[in-house]
């Protein structure tokens, strides 16, 4: 399993805007205690809020991995990145990237990593072998975030739950299944890049048997109602054996992401179908809450959306960014 | 896309029994018109029924591909196979294998293939890139075989339908999604070896737009109720956009294959869940028939099982090996 060492140095490169560096910035937001600073090249318009450091200064402060969570125009590898990345390897750091393009395929980097005995983690490209899923029950509790669509708040909700549960002294661990999540957690697997036969088995490996009162908070992917990715979601549901599902939804989304001809499913129907699928490997699976992404709404409209959803669905409804996830954790704390 | 040339020469190697050579034998059963003969090594206890030939004699008869559809004890590559496989390459044949072990990873074979300008198809290990599924509707009709479990007759049913439909002059093509099917069809993709994100897109590619009255008969894999593989099945269902599902089932199977702690689903429930999943990408999807595998039953018990299933489910019920699939094709012929 990928195991990325921290402290982290956040590489923002020559990102033309915040969005281009969103992965590095996200790692900084969710793991501020692991980050010593950021490296920005001339022309960079993004800012993670961490102090600007040279690679050498970051190495002196103990950085063990440089997080390459940035894309440039066209999604290709930028030659301007080469010198700082090689320098990081020379100074004893590993590299961890969530790019489509493998850093391991950049000859200069692969060669420098070999020379300095360092690792390059291309987290979008898992290289391990995983077992076939067994469906065997294992100890410990598991929560899986699911959604009406992709990119709707599943990682955000899972991470918010981890913070709130740890604050209350509960045993909980975020289990990453996407590239940004893996960089945030320092471990995990980008599940959509795993060979289809092994998806359920991979998730079983990611969330192994644990203490009876320990919660794995498994980051969901895709949606059972997304025509491109529902198979990934199905394997994730079965491998997770979730005791609890949290359904993530964005009230005003016009259509399924990337599929303009597909409408979002009805929220209650989506919950029912996800619970039914989950019950194959955990007959006690239930949906415990709804997590709304109301970022496109005014404060007032968001409040209304949360209340009307809660009235309609009959489950605690939150927006992690507005209301926090305390009410979800209240409910988890009562589950034995 | 894999495209394997025929005529075929069936390699049975030193198979200790029929089961060990079942892939080669299956290719011979379903594509007799493509097969010139078989190669058996000393000690071989399997027989495809085709004439025994030397590699050279087969080459003289025009064989273009040697089908390596055999496993020996332990599933490893047998050194005894090396000489005949190299000879086939020397005589201008390609090799096509459905083994876990890649023939391309056997240095002598890879080198001989290169030297003679021949191809080695390791059909369990697709090497192409596939697109993300779009869910966009395409012309032509599609049938997908689904099942209550794995290894329950989906390939057999699909192939039997192809033969019956072609006999009636209908436009129909078997679309292979597993290694044996790919060897039989000479094309297709072992879908369980495709990266999970691309399963639906791969199936869309496998069954492209076609004439309005053309049927793709898509080989199903796994089961939505199999805890290890349901994700593969889900991607296959969505990518297929099936107009028609045929549900495959074995009445006396004691538990899900490989999962002794999982019972088979109720047949009607399994149909309902598969149809609901299929309607995401084809709102008109319906289940048109049940295909029973009654090979474990006496003729009398099989007849009873077929009748009672038909009475209970209310759909034409067949066993392709006993009753043929004519009644299913009758129904397809009425679908416009």
Oligomer: homodimer
Inertia-based shape of chain A: globular
Task: Give the number of domains of chain A.
Answer: 2
Q: Give the terminus-to-terminus CA distance of chain A.
A: 30 Å
Radius of gyration of chain A: 20 Å
Strand % of chain A is: 15-25%
Number of helices of chain A: 11
The SSE string of chain A, one letter per element, is EEHEHEHEHEEHEHEHEHEHEHEH
- What is the highest CATH level, the class of the largest domain in chain A? Alpha Beta
Helical coverage of chain A, percent range? 25-40%
Average residue pLDDT of chain A: 96
Largest sheet of chain A: 6 strands, parallel
Question: How would you concisely characterize the structure shown here?
Answer:
Two copies of one chain form a homodimer. Chain A is 32% helix and 18% strand.
Write the layout of secondary structure elements.
2 copies of one chain form a homodimer.
Chain A: E1 2-3, E2 8-13, H1 22-30, E3 35-40, H2 55-60, E4 65-68, H3 82-90, E5 94-97, H4 107-116, E6 120-122, E7 141-147, H5 154-167, E8 171-175, H6 179-185, E9 187-188, H7 199-206, E10 214-218, H8 230-240, E11 244-249, H9 267-278, E12 286-292, H10 299-313, E13 317-318, H11 326-333
Parallel strand pairs in A: 2-3, 2-4, 4-5, 5-6, 7-10, 7-11, 8-10, 11-12, 12-13
Antiparallel strand pairs in A: 1-9
Helix pairs in contact in A: 1-6, 3-4, 7-8
